[in-house]
Amino acid sequence: MIAEPDGPEDRLRRFATIWSRAVFPVTSTSSTRPEFEEQLLPLARRLSQALLARAFAADAGRAVGAALVDAHCTDPEALSRTLDCVDAYLVLYCGGDGDQEGLRARSARLQHAMAAGFAQALRERTLAEQEAIAQAALQAQGVVAQALHATEARFRAVFEGAAIGIGMADLDGNILQVNGALLRMFGVSEQTMRSRNVREWTHPDDAPHTWRLYEELVRGEREHYHLEKAFYRPDGTVLWTNLTVSLLRDADGSPQYQLALMEDTTERRLLNLRLRYEATHDALTGLPNRTFFFERLEKALGAGKGQRFGLCYLDLDGFKTINDSLGHAAGDRLLVEVADRLQSCATAPGEMVARLGGDEFVALTTGPDTQREVDELATRIMNALLAPISVDGRELTVRGSIGIVEGPAGERSPAEVLRSADITMYRAKSAGGNRFELADPEADARAITRHGLTTALPTALDRGEFFIEYQPLVHLGDGSVRGAEALVRWLHPQHGVLGPDRFIPLAEHTGLIVPLGRWVLEQSVRQAREWRELHGGVEAVGPLRINVNLSPCQLTHPGLVQDTVDILERAGVAPDALCLEVTESALIGADDDLLKPLRRLAEMGVDIALDDFGTGYSNLANLRRLPVSVLKLDRSFTQSMQQFPADPVDLKIVEGIVSLAHSLDLAVTVEGVETGAQAEQLRILGCDTAQGWYYARPGPPERLHELALVDATG
């Protein structure tokens, strides 16, 4: 198949060309550069596939790194140039139109895997060479006299031509022979090297067992050992090596010499340290990142008995406003300054600061007395943010909200600790911000439950977990049932039946109230049609009407009027069968644009009820401009009427509201009627309809039908 001009295959080949030109000068291959490019092309394709794969596979990177060794790219410079090339060009030529930030993060992980694969393959190749050299050395020492010259020549060729450092010493540590590679690694002359004793080559980073293994070898108790060891060069720099030391015995089997084989791993170690730093530190602020922080937190939580931890989770207040108004560059400079200030707050042993991402930071303290220390740490952080930060000539005031979690090690996982701190931080932010709060297990449990309900809401409607109960609306004059209010319930699989107060605020916050409200309206209107059909042969006082609540989000939804019209037409129900209830607080200060949909619905014949009237402190004169036909008086005005005699002040207030409503041709409905005395008093005051437990609790539609039949037939 011929690739399109500048298609994926063309870009892949360009990447392979750039790669081959960068690496070819430091390879030991006998191939030409075009031939070498053809060797790299399948490796480039494999890197491209790993970059774009759905799930990241480190095996691909390790395989490519090992393949470089097979292609004779054994010089550490070849790996360094390869990683630089991958870092600069892989995403550019092979990334396509994907998420560039995510692709660069995956490219960095591929580089790390390539370095690991390269190191492993080179180590295996080196060990194979070491084994061959050791065998040659043994043969050179133990051959019969007639083959002495040939064997010595073979040993000398291997000894001098090897790419790794080789040295031979006696059992007292006196150096007898070294090859050129070893001299170049240490940067000394042969005379200087041979004047040293093996036991002088100690280093502070030597593993505790290094010299124990050495003593066992020279005593003949072991044949060889392998470890990573550092050496000082004469100029004071450090040489890191993979060191293998073998014991050479004479013809009788007695220990005679020690043979050391050294592979220079300094560049590889520095590369790994660089990759490790980049993988565990935030590129913008230089602080430890989420990965590094979780490692430290996990270590702190796994500490022994008597150890404690304290965690401060900081989120800047209003940072989005700074980004939106001044730009992300200014926001980044602000974050760098905040990071510097936070770093200065956590300088004691056991303390650290990290950036989790965005404007979220964490500070950790560990030790036996973190209950006091974490409070002091949070106070230092709050004080560090007091001084304004200068960005582009502007003095910006920065504030933050902090959630604090403190406790003994070993009781919670890192994820649980961070979740608790996050919840507590948002509690501090909800309380006004610029403060810190201590974690509260009960508050955490409530927040976790709310989060669980929020995540379950989108699919609950599809699974049919919602249902509607109906509470009758009773005419106070003759006691007849005039309709019902639709009240939605959620039959949750774990928590059972939940009332609207548990999930309606969550639905409003997520925007799911619109499809949920549309479903409630559709089900309720269909139920109203069924009631009217069932009452067709009964002489009722009037047709049953359904009341449905509208949330503020539904009021501002552009499809409210059309959805309502469509639902009524599909159900074949007249608009006068529907009453939409809107809370008084939602209409306080409402402009004409907000009222326009309600006016259109009212003109069609849909009743609009002002719910919870009396709780919003609205100007009574506003009633003239609102398209409402019903006032639903809040139960707080009538609670005192449950007993006889009622509070005379409440009587006067209700009497005044009823008189005002009737003068404006508004009907009055009262909620929360619970006693006969209350119902009678409201009837005397002139209220039109009522609902409450005195008449019936919310229930299935069949119950309301039965009540309506009883009222209609006497």
From TrEMBL:
Limits of the PAC domain: 225-277
Domain EAL: 450-712
Residue ranges constituting the GGDEF domain according to the UniProt record: 307-441
Domain PAS: 151-221
Pfam families listed in its UniProt record: EAL, GGDEF, PAS_9
CDD domains cross-referenced by the UniProt entry: EAL, GGDEF, PAS
InterPro entries: Biofilm_reg_signaling, EAL_dom, EAL_sf, GGDEF_dom, Nucleotide_cyclase, PAC, PAS, PAS-assoc_C
PANTHER family: BIOFILM ARCHITECTURE MAINTENANCE PROTEIN MBAA, DIGUANYLATE CYCLASE DGCP
Protein name in the entry: GGDEF domain-containing protein
Species of the source: Streptomyces swartbergensis
Lineage: Bacteria, Bacillati, Actinomycetota, Actinomycetes, Kitasatosporales
